[in-house]
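WARN  no MSA supplied for this record, continuing single-sequence
INFO  ligand: zinc ion
INFO  echoing inputs
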Amino acid sequence: MKFKLKIIWYYLNLIARGKFSSEEKLRVYQNKQLKKFQENVLSKSAYYKKYNQLNTSNWSEIPIISKPEFMSNFDAINTCGINLSEALELAIQSENTRDFKSEINGITVGLSTGTSGKRGVFLVSETERAKWVALVMQRVIQIKLFKRQKVAFFLRANSNLYSSVNSLLFEFKYFDIFKNKDELLKELEVFQPDILASQPSYLMEIAKAKCNQTIKISPTQIISFAEVLDEADKQFIKQVFPVQLSEVYQCTEGFLGCTCEHGTMHLNEDLVIIEKEWIDVTKFYPIITDFSRESQPIVRYRLNDVLEVKKDKCTCGSAFISIEKIIGREDDVLELSGVKIYPDLLSRKIALSTDHFTRYTIVQKSATLLEIGIECESKDFEKACKSFKNCISDYFTTLGISGFSLEFKNEIELIPGNKLRKIKKLSDEN
Ligand SMILES: [Zn+2]
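INFO  complex generated
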């Protein structure tokens, strides 16, 4: 089947399937899909073949894996006979040349640095690409039948996954965030997107440029993906662009969720089974099994994102799990005096107490030391330090943390193209 026909086929399937409003029906559907996944995909994976009695009752026999085990068993897990060194070489080459048409036997190979900065490789078949596009069309993008929508996509790397979507309905333009920012903003203004999709740190740059009237654009939808969008940034973006703001929870391991029309993040449980490794009564690490994948099965794969469940059911009526927020990654959770400090909660405290900065970073350098980088005019630096110090000390006192020190500097380290992580533990960079 031709690629575009495949997209239409999967898109119509999603529309026909409709919304799951009953949890019972959702579980029945998942079990059916799981069975198919076992027969059609896992049977081709040397690593997973032995679990051929896979069903919900003996599910737990399958080992839970995370990125390191997944990469070290890459050759046995994938169903395309591709080996890691060959894939890695190709992925690095295309990243360096910025030519993203790398394929092995018709399978797209991409490099993922992930949020942890450790590199990995992902494989995507043409069918998987078509499914991805159909899903984005159905769940994220507002489709207008009589107007071709221009979509500006800010990415650190392009891949066939994204560039192959130009069609009657959409015109995609890819903006390489490794390029000079001023040039990109100019290009964006010339393009005049209807839909603007980017990671939040770059959305903030664009929103600021619009705010200072450096650029004039009027998108009708904003899509935020790849990093956690924190509340303060969200409010600012919404203020500058008072249009629909959709958040997509997408990582190398798949398109895991997005916000519904009522603004709640739902995980795509019609594609992914989510097991929860609870941290406390509301927070968990997701363990995912994605039965929409075929080239590289994702089975009981533990992500190190911390998700918080929404207590009340969403008013949209979806049976898919509702997420209050993506709190951040395990690696970004600071720990002082044995107490965990979640980045989202800390950044919210800071947003509420001060705005004497353009941007900031907080890096945990040792068991007791936090280094705080504040981007602001030098005349405001002292005032900013004071606000940060008061806010952090007050918050830590309420958490029962004592015996810590704070170090300040009037700059932040920004690596072009890298995801901006406001709050992080240094150990994870090594
Ligand atoms: Zn909803």
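The mean pLDDT is 86.
INFO  checksum written, moving to next record
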